[in-house]
Every structure is written in C-alpha cells, then in structure tokens.
Design a protein that fits this description.
Blueprint: H1 9-30, H2 47-66, H3 69-101, H4 108-112, H5 132-152
Amino acid sequence: MPTWPVVSSADVDRLAEDVTVCIQRAYEEATTIIPRPQGIAFRPLPKQLRDLVRETRRLRKRWQQTRCPAQKAQLNRHAERVRAKLQAFNSESWEDHIASQGPGRGRHHQHSAAPPAVPFGCGPGAPVYGGAAHGCLSGLLEGRARHNAAEGE
C-alpha cells in the first residue's frame, strides 16, 4: 500500500516502479543460483546443423498448417536426414570428449563402467553372482513347480 496519496499518473508510475523493485528484490532473495556442473561441455551446433534444424521446424509448421500428406512425407524425409547428422555430430563430440580426457586421467570408468553385479540369494548360504544365478533360479522354480503339482493330486 502506498504511504502517499495516489492522485496523478506520476504517482501511479512511481507506485508501479516501487512494486517492480519490491518483486525483483523478493525474487533475488528467494532464488539460489545453481552453478553449471563442470562435467561434459557440449559443443554448440555448427551453423550448417542449426540451419537444418531451423528448416525442419519450418517444414513442421507448414505441415501443421496444411496437413498435406506430401508435405508430411517431405518433413519426415528431412527430419530423418537431420536426425542422422545430429547423431553423427553427437558421436563425434563424445569421441572428442573421451579423447580429451587423456590416458592418465583414470576417469573413463565414470563414463562406461558396467553396473555392479547384484547378488541373487539362493536359499541359505552365500549370495550367487552372474551365470550361476540362472541355475539357482531354475532349480528353485522347478522345485516350486513339483511342489505345487504334488499338492494338486
């Protein structure tokens, strides 16, 4: 609420400015700036790829306005070509990133390590890992199937 009487357009402008400043201060106090993680720095798309993406969007808009099957086919062909080029660019960027890590950094496992093996409990005793879990599980299921079949007789 204003502490002065609002009687002119200048008073309204001053009040609007005060409200704006108040909102901006509240926003700044309530907002935490999260720094960008220092991980993979993605390369920006080259102009050629940006132009292809722009053309895809233009074709999609034209198709949405007309719903012409021929334009949809043209859009699909173009989008598929752009998708292939983007995948090639992303693969190249990834290879460049891995190569930039260098052989002595020891961080390759962070990008490509297999998930740890999860043990499978097979009755009493030690946990079972990997291929042995398949035999253990099939044995449990066979025993259960025989048990249920015997109950039904």
